[in-house]
Design goal:
Order of helices and strands: HHHHHHHHH
Distance between the termini: 46 Å
Oligomer: single chain
Largest sheet: none
Strand content: under 5%
Number of helices: 9
Length: 158
């Protein structure tokens, strides 16, 4: 009996240590991912009103947007966006594309991982999806520079 109590106590202590280490590490990874997303969005050319309007017209894409991201895309589409709002809109477009990939299931994420080695391969993979696929619709709605930033984000984070 004492041996089992000791084993359970040791396992509990190890779990407590693991969680106390894992939580800060997880938050650091999320912070790093957010910094990379903003850096990718800042690196690109202008995020235009036409791109924003087209992305907002993709229903599945729009459903994935956070309210702040949707407001930033509307500001860009209206032409009243500041540079910060343009950067936020592009970052949210990249993030939402990534969320669409994850939501499509593990087989799609696995195929994206395989295709993400080169931009041309990834572009061909996305363009090979059915015409009604929300991933393809969002990809086609994004401009060339945003497509490249999406690929770069997927390539760096998979």
């Amino acid at each position: 009996m004492k041996r089992n109590i000791l084993r359970v106590s040791a396992a509990t202590a190890m779990a407590a240590v693991a969680f106390s280490i894992a939580e800060p590490a997880a938050s650091a990874v999320e912070h790093h991912r957010t910094e990379n997303l903003v850096a990718a969005a800042e690196a690109g050319a202008e995020f235009g009103a036409a791109e924003a309007r087209t992305l907002l017209n993709v229903p599945k894409f729009r459903a994935e947007l956070a309210p702040e991201a949707e407001a930033a895309l509307h500001a860009v589409a209206d032409g009243s966006a500041t540079q910060e709002e343009r950067i936020a809109a592009r970052a949210s477009a990249i993030s939402t594309f990534w969320n669409l990939l994850k939501k499509a299931g593990p087989s799609v994420v696995k195929a994206a991982k395989k295709a993400a080695g080169k931009f041309d391969t990834f572009r061909n993979w996305v363009n090979g999806l059915p015409w009604y696929n929300p991933i393809k619709l969002a990809w086609q709605a994004a401009g060339a520079e945003t497509q490249y930033q999406i690929w770069k984000y997927v390539h760096d984070h998979i």
